[in-house]
Design brief:
Elements (H helix, E strand, L loop, with lengths): L8 E5 L4 H12 L3 E6 L2 H11 L3 E5 L5 H15 L4 E4 L15 H29 L2 E6 L12 H21 L4 E8 L5 H8 L5 H11 L9 H12 L10 E4 L30
Parallel strand pairs: 1-2, 1-4, 2-3, 4-5, 5-6, 6-7
Helix pairs in contact: 1-8, 3-4, 4-5
């Protein structure tokens, strides 16, 4: 049976942990070669060793354009091409009320969450346009679709990623390049565990809490759910899909809740002036 990413080459930022590491493992399992980019050097090198000849690690700070350019160039020099660019790196960033948010923390957050995506799109397009093919995937969030779900800088950046995805997708489609985004809800990852429990290692505890609040009964979202979404967007299975922001949120952004919806029991139809029934 043909593997879903057989013969493809991917570059993943923020690849040492969380969504990035899960995606790297999933991609390689489906026949892909991967360039792992991250500032977490020890974890990144360990993952590259785990994945063997299918992976290579490079130190990559997404706030530095030269680092992103070097990562893309490594994919081409080491594996011969670049088919998938996954702009995944992220942090929570600046937290707090709008009137007390430090400007330098705001700028630093946008530098990672937004400028890093811009650099990734830019340099992926540089090598994908001549080959007339490619898939660019960027990490947004349900906080990039709705308000009130994240800190201000995070929300602004994730909304911007959705807009860039549409705009860059509209530009690059004539080169055979697809541009899509993923918008997860709070998932059982180290970043969410740190926010919710103060302990980035408490992933199982976080998973239990998320499962209790999930619209899909007893089902928490995991890093593997995002990896599977990235796999589909990177594969030829999504070959006619571009400009999409794909949610992995158990339906939360479309109104699903952990409890029953309004009007979940039959009543005679409501009519004018307080009347009921036909």
């Amino acid at each position: 049976m043909t593997l879903r990413l057989e013969g493809k080459v991917a570059a993943i930022t923020g690849a040492s942990s969380g969504f990035g590491a899960a995606s790297a493992r999933r991609f390689v399992a489906e026949g892909c070669k991967v360039v792992l980019g991250d500032i977490q050097q020890e974890a990144g090198a360990a993952l590259a060793e785990e994945l063997g000849d299918a992976a290579v690690f490079i130190n990559c700070n997404v706030t530095k354009e030269d680092d992103i350019a070097a990562m893309v160039d490594l994919a081409v020099s080491h594996f011969g091409k670049l088919d998938i660019m996954f702009n995944n790196a992220g942090i929570v960033g600046a937290v707090g009320p709008i009137d007390t948010t430090p400007a330098n923390e705001w700028i630093a957050t946008l530098d990672i969450l937004l400028n890093g995506v811009f650099y990734g799109m830019k340099h992926a397009a540089r090598v994908m346009k001549p080959q007339m093919s490619g898939s660019i995937i960027s990490m947004s969030s349900t906080a990039g679709i709705m308000g009130g779900l994240g800190p201000h800088a995070y929300c602004a950046a994730k909304h911007a990623v959705v807009g860039m995805t549409k705009n860059v997708g509209a530009e690059l489609c004539r080169f055979g390049i697809r541009v899509n985004a993923i918008a997860p809800a709070g998932m059982a990852t180290a970043m969410v565990a740190n926010v919710s429990t103060g302990d980035h290692t408490a992933i199982e505890k976080t998973k239990q809490v998320l499962a209790e609040a999930s619209p899909l009964i007893n089902r928490a979202g995991t890093a593997e759910d995002v990896a599977n979404a990235a796999l589909w967007l990177g594969s030829d299975e999504s070959g006619y899909t571009t400009g999409l922001t794909l949610t992995t949120d158990a339906g939360f952004t479309t109104g699903a809740t952990a409890g029953p919806p309004a009007f979940d029991e039959y009543q005679p139809m409501f009519r004018e002036a307080g009347k009921k029934g036909l």
